[in-house]
Protein 1
Amino acid sequence: MPSTDAAEIGSHILASPYAKRQLHTQPNRRKTNGSSLKPHISVLVSRTDLVDDPEFHPPEHHPVNPTGYHLPQSIPPFEFESRKLVLPESIQGKIDIVRIPSSRVPTKILPVAATDAVSTTMEPPKDPSILKYWKQRRRLFSKFDLGIQLDQEGWFSVTPEQIADHVATETLENIRSKEPQPVVVLDAFGGCGGNSIAFAKRPDVGKVISVDIDRQRLKLAAQNASIYGIPKDKLIFVECNAVFILQFCYRAGAFVLDQPVQDGEHIMQMMAAMPPPVNSESCHGYTIGGIDELPRNIDLVFMDPPWGGVDYNCVFGKNGYSLQDNMRIRRLHPQQQQEQVADAFFDSFSPSNQHERKAAFNSGLDETNCVNGSELLAFAAAAAPYVVYDIPKNTNRSSLAQAALDAGYRGNCRLDEHYLNGRLKTVSAYFGVDWGELLGTDV
Ligand code: MGP
């Protein structure tokens, strides 16, 4: 397991020979073509600068950036530092981290469409820890004032619209040439709908399946999708545990839950995790149902899972979040969980100092009922040809590389850091595409 200290990884300005030379492969294909690449992966790190439209986002919506806007020309040129790469011994020679020069990934201004209503009477949320997200509400959804609905978890986990649109564009532009048919996207942790809506807006996406474990949240997502005018047959909501769908429902993009299985242990695990049946209903014209709504084929798994709450950054610090050690995703439906008592306890417990916050992080989760962020990636890698994984901005990069190796990826993957008005907000990791072209011809 990589230690966080050892993983204070610098950035290579010079590209690794591996990053270009090794063709990208993915686990399900590797088995069939019999290729035997050395276990190695290059994480290609890029920076994307996005800026708000200042007319639409007056300064009071920028509480964390009170000095004003960073218009494109005022964003300082980003210099990459060349530091020596220090990797934990266990993964030396297996991974490297490669910085993509910023000139290859230009700043984007994605103008946010203005809406008719520009004020809202909606009360700010009571919880002070999510007030900062409320203050940025029009950044989360440009159409916020038309009736966007979020629950507690939605407030802090929904992806700001500009970033969600950028991720959808970046994903589709890079897989479209390989997928001539409209792409089918499984948004495994759909939440209140931010990323599902961004994918569904695109004409080259045929269908989006937005999965969440919480029926009420799916209803909020349906309301939000209707505000964005997403066609009713293009977005389907599925109430289910994402881990079950990724682990048991798809292999290499094909639905396999109804296929015969030989492996007895697999059958036992599947039966134990089988979600309880749920009702289907129509909400704002969209279907919300259970696993019987899943399509026969998917092309892409998009995952923006819970990271453990708002403390993820202050508790683990820069580069300190480990997908293996710190991310915990429930593998069962809430009705099947045994841990309500622990949850209730930690809900009423407000840690005051750093030590207590660290101890409280994810501590309401019973590990035997959870998978970690690395296991989650492995399930997604087996389920679909392409995977996009939104992870905390302070994710330790050797932890990501190790997770990619463990999921069977070889060659390269891309980690795109999204800066909004010069401030790092989120990062997305892209798997299933060869990103070697980003390295250009001068290496
Ligand atoms: P943030 O990192 O909590 O705050 O959320 P911010 O605005 O960067 O300010 P800072 O001063 O605290 O650094 C930034 C974005 O990260 C949110 O808008 C969400 O898109 C995403 N995000 C935050 N959290 C806590 C989660 C989470 O638990 N899960 C997911 N999927 N996304 C999250």
Protein 2
Amino acid sequence: MKLFKKRKSKYIELSSNPQNSEPRTGNLDHPDRIAIFGDLHANLEALDAVLADAKVQGVSRFICTGDVVGYGANPSECLNIIRKLDCPVVLGNHDSYAATDDSLKEFNLNAMNAILWTREHLSAEEKEWLRGLPMTVATGNLGNSFRHPPPATCHSTLVHSSLLKSESWCYIMKPEKAEVALRAQEPELVFFGHTHVPSIYSYNPKTDEFAEKFPAQEGIHQLEPGWKHLINPGSVGQPRDRDPRASYAIYDPDAGTIEIRRIEYDIVSTQAKIEAAGLPLRNAERLAKGR
Ligand code: ZN
């Protein structure tokens, strides 16, 4: 099923109808299916639920788009899980600020207070690990040996915000921003995070056509060959598309598909931990609303 409507040089708002997606069958035995996830934000219950689901789905490889900490009450626990996964991870803005003493003047009060709290609750060694995370990772040919790709054959890259301005943490929230990023994008696939909204932006360099799915609905989305794709798996621990369920994606290189999966978890427990930790209550309240 073709999911992209195409029109010359124009972004097209694709309908958010979940019926457009294939049934969620997946290929449970395929060894090369890869989970892409990020913005877990110290939400241990959501992370556990996502990893349990990925296991059921037969996923054995992971890619993390950053923001392991910030907002939530379990930064060390989440960080340790990510370290044990031993997967490609990029630095998120909350990771960076939690691991340094940089000024927080660009954050709103709730995010700022959560980062100050996180600074106090991470060990020096954990902060050092976070500071060592790269801004981008060339994840290579995901169909084969993405862990040690020769750069010349790299066709996928991982970044938290945008390849264009990774250090300034800009947000790709609008089609115009995605269009600029996609025109400059060299790899076929770029996975990013930061916006907390699952999205799939695509560009055909030969025909100069664009397509977008924002937000990308739960289910399987076919990636057109020959197009470049800019893919956000949504947020595990702080979804912001009015769906409170944890969000992540599974990439199937053989089928050329991205599956957006939404996973329920114990939000009440996460909220209770945030409250007990003395973190801003707004960080807990918004979990139930997914915004
Ligand atoms: Zn984030």
Protein 3
Amino acid sequence: MSADCGDSKVTLVICGGGNGAHAWSGIASSQPNTEVRVLTLFRDEAQRWSDSLQKGDFTVSFYQNGEKCSELKTKPSLVTNDPAKAIPGSDVIAFVLPAFAHEQYLHAIKPFMEPGMILVGLPGQAGFEFQPKAILGDLSNQITLVNYESLPWATRLNEFGKSCDVLGTKNAMMGALKIGSATPKQDPYTVVQRLIGEKPVLTTKGHLLTVTMMSVNAYIHTSIVYDKWAEWDGKPLDEKPAFYHAISQDGATLLCNASEEVLSLTQDIMQHSPGTDLSGTIHILDWYKKCYAPEIEDASTLYTALRTCKVYNGLTHPMTKTADGKWVPDFTNRYTTEDVMFGLTVIRGIAEIVGMATPKIDKILTWTQEKLGKKYLVDGKLQGEDVKETRAPQRYGLTSLQELIDI
Ligand code: NAI
């Protein structure tokens, strides 16, 4: 392991071409002794981004309270769709893209990966730890895996390949890791901090399952969607309803109960396997206080915290416009797709292996899968035909707690 990660050169490959990839490519390129390459396999993104860099500046603008406060004009050294150009010689490979695309990237980078490389999910989302073994085989044990609970920034692309805005930067973020059998090419506890700068302050410790448990959108978003639409009478609405701010007391209780099931699950795992550190798993109300304390007017209960959290101002349920200008819910968005396939099914699958009942999670999942026309939970088990498109451990043939821990 590098003794002084601050001085040695780091080569980072950012996989993805969206908002987060844009922001980090500028931010990481501005760190000392850092080479940044971007690998994007999506359509013609690599060509367009590369062309744009050749023509002019690449700007990342930072905002505070809606006001622009600073900007960076540093560029990645390479943007390519060719893993043979991006991966060899790199230290850190980071997935900064929606979880459904991870599989494609793992297949693409596999031939060029070497023992000791560090694969980072920023964020990796739930089940990030199960996929590499299935695709990389033995190599997955020789690389180091690190997963973070979210993206450090709220960020939006401005002009593709040219500029993006960082609207907010988190104060703190949690991550977990599994060190590979080959010595990591950089210190995996600190290298991502070095590549993102001072904020958010990263705590990187514990078993990777912690981040799966704390992939909170899996239960926040799905509880809110259930709360709003499970009893809906089918009549189109005049306006798009607020997403977080319109949660009902029953919805907040459901989310609270789902979070308690996740906590019980982690406590059960730690009881059966005392060496497994899942201590980063916390109750959803504590998570809100940790992440958004200054933005929440009333954090006395989960219900009030969600309804008074200012970062959620203006956010509405994803809706589709009807011919007569009214609104009906759109269940094909990421709150019901990604957050189920790379979220709720993963947690439910772990619970099934551990032998823990999760009635509230089951209630949400059963209703959501029906809306999606999918079959995940069948006869109380995660055995439906669509489990193969999720990252639930069942998809990878994992059947025991020991296998989950050893992954
Ligand atoms: P994004 O929505 O900007 O990602 C789009 C990119 O994903 C595309 O540019 C393309 O490179 C890739 N992509 C899209 N469809 C693809 C396909 N069919 N095949 C292959 N690649 C495809 O994502 P963003 O905003 O950069 O977020 C990355 C991750 O960070 C996501 O998991 C997101 O939930 C999470 N996140 C994002 C935040 C933000 O402010 N942008 C905040 C917190 C979390």
Protein 4
Amino acid sequence: MAGLLAGLVGWPVAHSLSPALHRAWIAAAGLDADYVAFAVDPRHAPQAIAATPAFGLRGVNVTLPYKELALSLAGDASPTARRLGAANVLLVGPDGRLHADNTDGVGFLAALEGLPRDRSRPALILGAGGAARAAAFALIEDGAREIRVANRDAARAKRLAADVRGAGARAIAADWAERASAVLTADVGLLVNATPLGMNDQPQLDFDLANLPREAVVYDLLYRPRPTALVARARAAGLAALDGLAMLIAQARPSFELFFGRPPPEGVDLEAILAAKLGESAPA
Ligand code: NAP
């Protein structure tokens, strides 16, 4: 068995790219380490996740549906994880206790770097789940002054908007039916799809891009298929657009450093490695 072991817990995890991603970094760094995906049955999830230290793991990444559970099982948590109410990293401390963190917001912002974007314009986020929440708070830390949230469940959109106001930014909770209306979209600098709509096996996101200004950046947090239909439509309309693969890689960087005690090695073309894997697993 490898010297240092970390992993991923979720249900399901069979299609996760995280093992390929971390293993590419492990190999390039020449580490005696491994990263394994654990499909944790919901009937055993609290016991299994709490037992992370007992199995000799340095820590685990946590994906759906266990991000809230992971936070509740941790002995302590970073301010970011506490504010988001969810953890995507559990690190085993020297005392054997679990420390919770959340790197989704860091990854969300890092992936946006390099794209020309007017930060003074409002951002419109579709969805109000964990990814939307991480995106909203990351944008506020990045200086956003106004966040608009459109979500199928209106009460959830209102809760997120209230929390955005509590963090010092203006917020609008919009009806899902109004998501592409001119009043919501005509002045936005960033559109974020934080729903699964458009992912393989899911219905398409119904969103007319016509009202967006030419300067707007379209950010689809999905990466299956590549390009997503939203990214393809945005690019065809002349808008800057990116999918969620860069975010996936960027949110994994701090996890790798926490687990293996060093930053990921430079010079590994993970976008190419993961894009090739996505190509392999895409339905015919
Ligand atoms: P989540 O907490 O379960 O939230 C899902 C969100 O999508 C909710 O706002 C939900 O609305 C909405 N939604 C689901 N089905 C819908 C439908 N049929 N019509 C309209 N809205 C619908 O999930 P999450 O963690 O936020 O993740 C959201 C997406 O982001 C996922 O697809 C995930 O793959 C992606 N993501 C990507 C990365 C990355 O690194 N690229 C990281 C995190 C997440 P309701 O509140 O009305 O249910």
